[in-house]
Amino acid sequence: MSGGIITLWKQRVGRITPIAQSRFSLHLVLSSEKPKEWIVTIIYNSQHGNIQKALWKNLSLISMLDLPWILLGDFNAILNTNEHRGGLFVNYSLKSRHFNDFLIQNQLFDLGFYGPPFTWCNNQGGLARRWARLDRFLANSAWLSSFDSYCNNHLPRIHSDHSPMFLIAKFFNHKKQRVFRFEDFWFGYDKCHKAVARAWEFKPNTTPMHAFSHLLSRTKNYLAHWRKNGLTPLDAAIGKTEEDISYIESIESSLQHDDLSRIALRSLYHKHSALIQQNSIRWAQRARLMWLKNGDFNTKFFHNHAKIKGHRNKISAIMTDQGEIITDHQRIGKEFIDFYTNLWATSNTFDINDLAERLPNDLPTLNEEDRLTLTRNVTVPEIYNTLKSMGKGKSPGPDGLNVEFYLFYWEIVKDPLTQAIESFFKCTQFTKDHGAKHILY
């Protein structure tokens, strides 16, 4: 069977409504409990580049509906040279360029796969044999945000020249623990500075490493409390300010003291501009864009970019040492814990003296000047210059405090930080929480 599209579904998935069809695509709206409505597009594309280009243009109209959207099927095109084997890439290059343009213009993302890398084979022998990844799942950010986990499996290619694909998409019922992250737009709030100063006023009576760890914990607690109780969510603040502006603008002409209304409006306009800038900084930080400048307020773009980062970083499935693919959320977490527990388990077989005896005698050695340089005490300017050299906008560590935080509050944190670093070089031991990591799954 070839040359057509057949779609089957179970009644319990929801109500299916066809909205459009063509020779090479079928568009369905699936109405369910969650997400409430989303679009499923099934593709059986032509091999001819001109027809493909026309299909990409027609599909772009669907993206304007602004609903969760997933596309699947035989696209008869590849994205890059790694998605084919045998023959020359020139046979795919033009179609590949148009296909990539279609994904970029409509902000669609490949859902990846597990299993064999190619979904099509011409089943010929010898040098005439060809493979390509012509079949895939694509989705927009709205669809990705509607599901917590997804996994696309390439199944064995037995009765066809194409591999069947099996997509599993899941919701998790557990409540996700919110991870603390310092937001750069907090620098604009005086209460943020007071919270940080109050946290670092405390003088712990313990080792420098534990003292610094305790101060970081206090900082997170104070900032989290301020964020929860004293910081109005930006979206709500922007909405309230816009309502106030609309109200004053609507009654401005009827007021006798129009000077007062102009002053009030001017103040609200400035407040609204500041909130929009803070919102742009927030989403740019989450998207980790390095080129944000004052005046770049395309928050929707930053928001989508942040979703893309989350999509790429999320672990929806893992493969065990036995080759089993796991998609269950709890089992994925257990596998990570077991793996790293075994990896970093203490071994009693290591002997430093035995290692030293096995080293060759002709290894190069350091001169006295180099030894003194490497063993001298670290200085405050060295630490500060190291922080300045670190990339801005990067994800923070488990403490949730980024490089920008340490630079901005340098006068507050420099002494405890320096003492902690000096202590580490003397005892070569971290506190337990300094080795912690977050795994997004």
Structure, described:
The chain is of the alpha+beta class. It folds into three domains: 11-170, Deoxyribonuclease I, Chain A (4-Layer Sandwich), CATH 3.60.10; 180-229 and 367-441, no CATH class; 232-308, no CATH class. The chain is built from 14 helices and 13 strands. The protein has helices at residues 49-63, 93-105, 141-146, 190-199, 208-229, 234-251, 258-287, 299-313, 329-343, 352-358, 368-375, 380-389, 403-408, 410-427; strands at 15-21, 25-31, 37-44, 69-74, 84-85, 108-110, 120-121, 131-132, 135-140, 149-154, 165-170, 318-319, 325-326. The strands form four sheets. The protein has a six-stranded mixed beta sheet with strand order 1-2-3-4-9-6. A three-stranded antiparallel beta sheet has the order 5-8-7, with no helix packed on it. Strands 10-11 form a two-stranded antiparallel ribbon. α4 (190-199) packs antiparallel against α5, α5 (208-229) packs antiparallel against α14 (410-427) and α7 runs parallel beside α8. The longest helix is centred in the middle third of the chain and has 30 residues, at 258-287. The chain is flat and about 75 Å long. The model is unreliable at 290-295 (pLDDT under 50). This is Reverse transcriptase.
